[in-house]
Automatic annotation (TrEMBL):
ATP-binding is among the record's keywords: yes
PROSITE patterns associated with the record: ABC_TRANSPORTER_1, ABC_TRANSPORTER_2
Protein name, per record: ABC transporter, ATP-binding protein
Gene Ontology terms describing biological process: response to antibiotic
GO molecular function: ATP binding; ATP hydrolysis activity
Amino acid sequence: MESPAVEIIDLVKRYGRTTAIDGLSLSATRGAVTAILGPNGAGKTSTVEICEGFRRADGGTVRVLGLDPSRPELRARVGVMLQAGGVPPAMRCGEWLRLMARFHAHPLDPAALLERLGLTGHARTPYRRLSGGQQQRVSLASAVVGRPELVFLDEPTAGLDPQARHACWELVGDLRAAGVAVVLTTHHMDEAEKLSDQVVIIDHGKVVAEGTPSSLTGAERQLRFRARPGLTLDELLTALPAGSAAKESPSGHYIIEGQVGPELLATVTAWCAAEGVTADDLSIERRTLEDVFLELTGRELR
């Protein structure tokens, strides 16, 4: 069997007395999109930077396309999109992309890539004069112009408008269809849910959950509504069908989980009437990846 595009076993990374990555293990499949999610400080950026060869591990094993990340022959096979861009400020973006293409044997057409990402009209604009979103798209183009086997995308749609965001999504879909392995980090849960074949959630340097988006979110639906904060849910729980759960999260927002059907809906609305409250914005929804993320990593700011 073909080895994974990325394989990490018991990875450890320390900064002084702080352990940023603590025995983390994960793998990314070839020809698939793997999203690495986590709160600020969870260790995801350090993990990706070790895979990219920018940092060295303090323990464990990391293999990228079957090789140690520091091997120079990986440079022609791996594309990297950095948050900081990495483009010389005075370089015109068209010039930069043509330069990047020359380092590869069979690159994509730089002009076609600029057109696809809405940058043709800015090909002669110095990088420093581009907007943040335009700079982000130049970085994305730089990462994929060499037709890599594996590409790392760090927050690829940060600062993009909806049109540019969807263009980025389409490009990621085309990379997957071409057999490219994509490893991305993002704070947009809807993006991870839409694009990813595999999701890995990490916190405090460890994997806390992994699987397909559908396996993580589950098939159960939720009943949600708003009402005054601090309602006592004990009586409601006793009246709900067996296996149901009820919680207030955040304040004034109520979530009922279980077999959502006419019986549960009638029970909840009757309970609200007995409490003298109106269930505002009542809706039946599927559990989202954001729900799972917050349940596993908490709601407090990092």
